[in-house]
Amino acid sequence: MSIQGHNIYYRNFISKVESREIKIGIIGIGYVGLPLALNFCKKDINVIGFDINQKIICSLNNGESHIKHIKSDDIKKQIKSNKLTITDNFSLIKDLDGILICVPTPLKKSKEPDLSFIIKSLTKIKKYLKKGQCISIESTTYPGTTNEIVKPIIESMNFKIGEDFFLIYSPEREDPGNKNFKAFEIPKIIGADKNLCAEIGKKLYELVTPKVILVSSTKAAEMTKLLENVYRAVNIGLINELKILAEHFDLDIHEIIRAADTKPFGFKAFYPGPGVGGHCIPIDPIYLSWKAKQEFNFSMKFIDLADEINSSMPLVICNKVIEALKKRSKILNESKILVLGLSYKKNIDDCRESPSIKIINNLIKSGAKVSYCDPYFPSFSFCKDTINLESYKINPENIIRQDCILLITDHDVFEYELIEKYSKLIIDTRGRFSKSKNVISA
Questions:
Q1: What is the model's pTM?
Q2: What is the pLDDT of residues 386-417, one digit of tens each?
Q3: Which CATH architecture has domain 3-216?
Q4: Which of 143, 260, 340, 353 could be disulfide-bonded to 222 (CB atoms 3.0-4.6 Å)?
Q5: In the chain, where are the structural domains located?
Q6: Catalytic one among 280, 318, 373, 404?
Q7: Predicted pLDDT at 6
């Protein structure tokens, strides 16, 4: 008889999956955890969402979404049907079968990985863990985290991973605001260091996604996630550098990219911008670079250079503003500048690591009279919460008052024709406006 046949914990878990009696817990109900919870609920699976933010807990239990691209009606439906429960009562972990950890993994100021949210989550739940459960880490991290950090905490409770407890790593692949790919349509990567863990992980995620891809280990899965974002960070860094070179040649980099993109093979279009934001591209590659230096004294030159270029872009944009104003006999500290967009990418309400915030802070510190417009953020605090602003209304009178319009985040809701018609000067970091004497590509 196979080991599966002998293992009662494996058999019980698979039985619950197949009968859909499995109970799922998701720790961290944010941009990753909330859509994941809803996907399980839509498959008729009971989910308990855990968070420590009381405001989020209350709003979700009232059927109100705290993430704008996720509909409140979807939450109301699952709360009303009792498929979804949101709480800060971590003792309920003992009633669950699968526990998915979707907490942030930011960088410290020193640019070192900050795994405190993962460690705090495991510390909170470990006394409620029981045999037969499965933990999946979805938070992005460096190769080796699951084995080096998570596994010892679980084993300290006298569990034997792969026998009476199951541990996997399955990186999130959420892309907020992407209308082309829904979360449940994206293939799920699963890494495990024991065969039974891999089989259980596969069965678990097949409940919510049509394609599960098994890799050889948790470390391989961790590395896969980082590769995805290193690839993007390096290519964005490359195109940002080429944009600056194109300006010296008096060329439009967007025209060049469009032309190159007509090649049906060997080229994938990346676009320049004012820097990189969000929780992935500015952070994930640094996790890998840090680990390489710490463990192998190995320098990741491409990653470090891409980070240097991408991190420099907000300052490049500020200098572009100063230069453009100077050509119009204006100086920065006497100019009115309207910044369009706070989010790190268009059509979402997420401004984590947003270059727009960095640019606005720099402009304010330099004495400019800055206002912003972003329908996703009615109000916002800048310069370490010392400057409070409200989103500016876009109309002809307000546009005419500005010395410069600076497009940072190209939300689809902006009235681009109106803005272009009434603006004295537009600095466009996204290639959204048409060419004219008042539009400067940056």
A1: 0.93
A2: 999 999 999 999 999 999 999 999 999 999 99
A3: 3-Layer(aba) Sandwich (3.40)
A4: 143
A5: 3-216, 253-441
A6: 280
A7: 65
